[in-house]
DNA sequence: TTACATTTGTTCGTATGTATA
DNA sequence: TTATACATACGAACAAATGTA
């Protein structure tokens, strides 16, 4: 069975899945950018030659995956990390009494390097490929509680620099969106307990050998493309890492 | 606006939400039990007097919440914890190389007690209400890696005993389902790093003061009813706690 | 304030396809 | 083969939210 519309690689079978693929393709090609509205249902129906229900089912899934956001009476928008709800989707640290707070970030390290084994494996690179490697110290209520060691492929972030990272007005994932057209839509995380080393102890003002929560994260864009590898260490004396399993 | 069908407390407004509420009510009253099929779409349409699309939208949400499972050509079933996919929904421990394995469980403690402050707060009890409190040691490949300290209200598990807990053929949540008609459908978890105490060290064969991952879990049934409070401690030397954030 | 056009949300009903027993 | 059950697709009508003239 051939493609039913435009040049999208439709394998056929289920029409709404084809529509979803086509929408996803348009998104990853940047036809509609984060925070922008996509065309109205009526226009998309004309474009794809399908019924409302079929289009809706395709969009339903993209909404469920947090890729699109619908607003009745306004339109359907490409999701961003700017939106308040989306920030805490990827920042899951709360005070132990349940209080949510936005962290302040200090860039503590930045350099260009060859990917080590762990980074290459996590990002699907060849060992030796270039990465930018940088560290952030995150504070809540003026107390440093978390250190993020982050690696991203130079290939996907060719113009990244320490200055631009320092000047970013927004969240990191928002910066990826606005300045590099890269949309983080999913993360895989693995958690362990570890002990604070000398640097951890200094930066977080704790004793060496304190227990820390370590989070190894791989962040993905469309089509399961791996964008970022991050190792976080969290001081859980007064905070905790939370999530809910529905 | 009054109820549109049977005795369900319909506040009106959105029909498919009413249907969903009615289905949920029937489920929590035990009209259909775990692993059983609910009536076919055609029969439910007659019962509720709605169209296919409306019924389907209600069921769609229950499927998305892992409460029902659809099988084309067979029927729609009440989810259980028996099913292979569902076990690892709540047991998120993997070997560091990614290998999944079912744990073996040893019941290490069991007693009836008055709820302490943490248990009462987590389960919404008055301090002093009766709980069953028991501990499991979980092993992977014959090595103990996790200790679960579990508390449940006596009121919801009146006939629970050490013998029944020890003889249960299946997973714990499956036991709750089969023997007490209680369906765990969601958990909230909070994670911290902590250090092994003497008992942890003895039971897991590690040094006192080793770093452990601590997981505080509240498990819910329908209507956000709190059923179980659990504090787990995991040795992350060779294993890790995983999840993905879509 | 009101009226109107636009956009998404809900509900209906029907026809056909696909998987299962 | 046949009957049953869920899955997909279509299209129409009306409701509700939004922004604007």
Structure description:
The structure is a homodimer of 246-residue chains. By secondary structure, the first copy, chain A, is an alpha+beta fold. Helix content of chain A is 29%, strand content 33%. Chain A contains eight helices and ten strands. Chain A has helices at 15-28, 41-48, 52-64, 84-90, 117-123, 162-167, 172-180, 198-204, and strands spanning 68-71, 75-78, 93-95, 104-114, 130-140, 143-153, 186-195, 211-220, 226-234, 239-245. Chain A has a six-stranded antiparallel beta sheet with strand order 4-5-6-9-8-7. In chain A, a hairpin with a 3-residue loop joins strand 1 (68-71) and strand 2. Chain A is globular, with a radius of gyration of 20 Å. Residues 6-10 of chain A have low confidence and may be disordered. Chain A binds chain B through residues 64-66, 89-90, 92, 94, 185-195, 211-214, 216, 234, 236, 240-246, and chain B through 64-66, 89-90, 92, 94, 185-195, 211-214, 216, 234, 236, 240-246. The first copy, chain A, binds a DNA duplex (21 and 21 nucleotides) through residues 14-16, 40-42, 50-54, 56-57, 70-76.
